[in-house]
Amino acid sequence: MSSVQLDERLVRDSYPVAELPLCQLRLMDDTRFPWLILIPRRAEVSEVFDLNEADRQQLWREASEVGYMLKALTQADKINIANLGNVVAQLHVHIVARLRGDDAWPGPVWGQGQPQPYDLDGLASMRDHLLARLDGLKQRL
User: Fold this and answer.
1) CA of 133: how far to CAs of 66, 74, 115, in Å?
2) Which of 55, 72, 92, 135 is deepest in the core (most CB within 10 A)?
3) What is the pTM of this model?
4) Rounded to an integer, what distance in angstroms lies between the CA atom of residue 103 and that of residue 100?
5) One digit per residue, pLDDT tens: the chain, 141 residues?
């Protein structure tokens, strides 16, 4: 899907969903939280400020649109958008739908319990829902 080599942890912990103008969109393999990741297709970039101005604007455009889409899809109480990179240095942006009463509410999702991987049917269903909503979103990007 992408010509930029992905960090092995991103590959291991998530599934590809779609290619957006700047980023590869991936689904984290944890059914407890609807959780997407945007990974810019730019080599050797670890910080948002490493991107040129046009790419920075595009990254936040994609993050905002994907966040809006995920909130509508999940009826989330809050969408968390975060760029950490303490473990995986490759620039990536987490977009997590949070629901009051989820396994980590109101704290952060990182380090909370054990991930609950998707089974094949659950993964296919979630990807189908995301792809159906992405059709309209891609036109705005």
Assistant:
1) 9, 12, 25
2) 92
3) 0.94
4) 9
5) 457 899 999 999 999 999 999 999 999 999 999 999 999 999 999 999 999 999 999 999 999 999 999 999 999 999 999 999 899 999 999 999 999 999 999 999 988 899 999 999 999 999 999 999 988 777 788
Beta-strand relationship, 78-82 and 35-40: unpaired
Helix axes 120-140, 53-74, angle to 10 degrees: 130
8-100+114-140 homologous superfamily: HIT-like (3.30.428.10)
First and final C-alpha spacing in the chain? 18
Return d(Cα 55, Cα 50) in angstroms, integer: 9
How far is it, in rounded angstroms, from Cα 74 to Cα 116?
18
